Amino acid sequence: MTEEKVVFECRSDLKLDKVVATLVQKASEFRSTVYLVEGGRRANAKSLLGVISLGIDNGAEITVTADGADANEAVKSLVEYLKDPKV
């Protein structure tokens, strides 16, 4: 299992729903099981409803975890995206 913490930095001109949808799309590109953990709660990063239910705000510290064949790539990709989301 691979995990890394990141601070979510979303520019104010981006719509959070689009940022989350793009995040879910990125997570779905990987075969590994990928989770986001924030505030003691965990959600499947491939589930739009799950990620939305976390209620992630700008500046939140998020732990990205992945388990599987491409876990390292999945964590790296999602951490980079959360640092500077682009839609």
Which helices and strands occur, and which strands form pairs?
Layout (H helix, E strand, L loop, with lengths): L1 E6 L8 H13 L4 E6 L2 E4 L3 H6 L7 E7 L3 H13 L4
Antiparallel strand pairs: 1-4, 2-3, 2-4
Characterization of this structure:
- With 87 residues, the protein is of the alpha+beta class.
- The protein is 37% helix and 26% strand.
- The protein contains three helices and four strands.
- It has helices at 16-28, 48-53, 71-83; strands at residues 2-7, 33-38, 41-44, 61-67.
- A four-stranded antiparallel β-sheet has the order 1-4-2-3.
- The longest helix has 13 residues, at 16-28.
- It is globular, with a radius of gyration of 11 Å.
- The protein starts with a strand and ends with a helix.
